[in-house]
Amino acid sequence: ITKEQQAFMKVIVDSYNRHQIPQDVTKKLLQEQYSAEENFILLTEMATSQVQVLVEFTKNIPGFLSLDHEDQIALLKGSAVEAMFLRSAQVLSTKMPNGHTEVLEERIRNSGISEEFMTPMFNFYKSIGKLHMVQEEQALLTAVTILTPDRPFVKDHPAVERLQEPMLEVLRKLCALHHPREPQYFARLLGRLTELRTLNHYHTEMLTSWRMNDQKFTPLLCEIWDV
Ligand SMILES: Nc1ccc(C(=O)O[C@H]2C[C@H]3CC[C@@H]2C3)cc1
Predict the structure, then answer these.
(1) Model pTM score
(2) In this structure, are residues 36 and 111 in contact, taking their beta carbons and an 8 Å threshold?
(3) pLDDT tens digit string along 101-138?
(4) From atom 1 of ligand 1, which residue's Cα is the shortest distance away?
(5) 44 lines ligand 1 (CB under 6 A)
(6) Does ligand 1 lie within 6 Å of residue 217's CB atom?
(7) Three-class SS string for the chain?
(8) Is the CB of 221 within 6 Å of ligand 1?
(9) What is the pLDDT of residues 155-185, one digit of tens each?
(10) Residue with CA closest to ligand 1 atom 17
(11) d(Cα 64, Cα 69) in Å, to the nearest integer?
């Protein structure tokens, strides 16, 4: 990894670590009482804070703010669900003190999300956990996901590709560095991005079913997901 690639990576990793979900949100997971309504409110808070964290992280990705402004919005809206599931998978599988993980899982299972979405979501969390990504890989994989050129309504594809390519190159080198005995590790990471895309569809269903039951969303979630 060259000097400038190291500097480049440091910007992304520091930003990824700086923008974490506030403690008060994760603390509430243990305190509030159990009910589908209360769980839904907690998940709404969590999703809202994850989207805020996502926007801040994205603004620090080198070159992102020099993209066309409408393309910046299209990339954020197009990747919000995937970035959120990636981060919650990483939070669930590593960051959280043990007691929290089960509690969060329990609340997710008991918040009005349909069973048919629950399975793929938890399978994804498990498949991410099994990879034992180092935090540099997590940060770069999230940045690569956000800078996916073929999101709906993106006009200048090549400009997004030019930002994503160097990130993929650094991620590839990182994988070789941290997982020397697994030559296919980088390919497996990219395979997770394909699995992530399938969650978009389920997520839209989840939102629709909650809306049908008149569940309250925050303005930020309504804006990012056009609900
Ligand atoms: N009012 C809403 C509440 C939660 C979500 C959501 O996507 O939640 C995500 C955060 C983690 C728990 C369920 C998924 C993963 C969307 C709208």
Answers:
(1) 0.92
(2) yes
(3) 778 888 888 888 888 888 999 999 999 999 999 999 99
(4) 44
(5) yes
(6) yes
(7) CCHHHHHHHHHHHHHHHHCCCCHHHHHHHHHCCCCHHHHHHHHHHHHHHHHHHHHHHHHCCCCHHHCCHHHHHHHHHHHHHHHHHHHHHHHHHHHCCHHHHHHHHHHHHCCCCCHHHHHHHHHHHHHHHHHCCCHHHHHHHHHHHHCCCCCCCCCCHHHHHHHHHHHHHHHHHHHHHHCCCCCCHHHHHHHHHHHHHHHHHHHHHHHHHHHHCCCCCCHHHHHHCCC
(8) yes
(9) 999 999 999 999 999 999 999 999 999 999 9
(10) 44
(11) 9
Assigned token pair, 215: 């569940």
Q: What is the 43 CA–ligand 1 centroid distance (Å)?
A: 5
Reply yes or no on whether the pLDDT at 94 is more than 70: no
Q: CB of 86 closer than 6 A to ligand 1? A: no
Digit-coded pLDDT (tens) for 203-214: 998 898 888 787
pLDDT of residue 98: 61
ipTM: 0.93
Ligand 1 lined by 21 (C-beta under 6 Å)? no
Model pLDDT, residue 96: 63
Instruction: Find out whether the beta carbon of 108 lies less than 6 Å from any atom of ligand 1.
Output: yes
Whose Cα sits closest to atom 6 in ligand 1?
47
Distance 70 CA to ligand 1 centre (A): 25
Contact (CB, 8 A) for 195 and 124: yes
